[in-house]
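Sequence in, structure out.
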Amino acid sequence: MRIDDNVVARHPATIMGLLEAQGLTGADTAGWDSLKTRETETFRHRLRDYNRKAASLTHPVSCYTRYYRRYGKSYPVQLQMESVVLKARDIKAACLAVETMFLAEVRHGLLVAGHDTATLRGDFVLDAAAGGETFTTVSGQSRTLKADDLYLADGDVILSSVLEGQAQASSLTADSTDVLYCVYGVEGVTRTDMEAFFDDLRRYILTAYPHASVGCPAYHAAVPA
């Protein structure tokens, strides 16, 4: 993966984490549901005294909160956390490949995108938008990137952005068997944060898909340490 000079100039503290998982077939739905229930109960207990303002100031959510506030927006993962904790909603998705991602995302507060590798060419670049670039989201809506928003592209195809989410073209479905998970580490998010996230994501994937092959995470920093 290449990091464009725009990112180095505008978001020098950015780090991107990537994890590939293959062979996501033969799902153990019962095993996954059991683990998901335990993990969710633990998460709710940990945040039993949840306060939105305090949570917004807690690392690493605070890193994303600062990013989103520059554009007058709320951090969507925090809203997902509140849905699980305050509204007692279950984590459900069209496929377990997405559910594993959502659970890890909520537990760790990091922003993640999941892409079906069968749709990818592998010419990845992390860039900062000039403003005006467009793509179609998972929900089928056309979105225009705002200036300086971080986004991941595969050649000239936008895969996802921090503010606008994931593209429809590479989205995960029940037929997806090979997945590339991408963590956007905005300023303040560390490799250590990502390592903890990927440890749990790996555990979730192998519980949901016992015969899957999960690679080692790769980390790309805009300005290497």
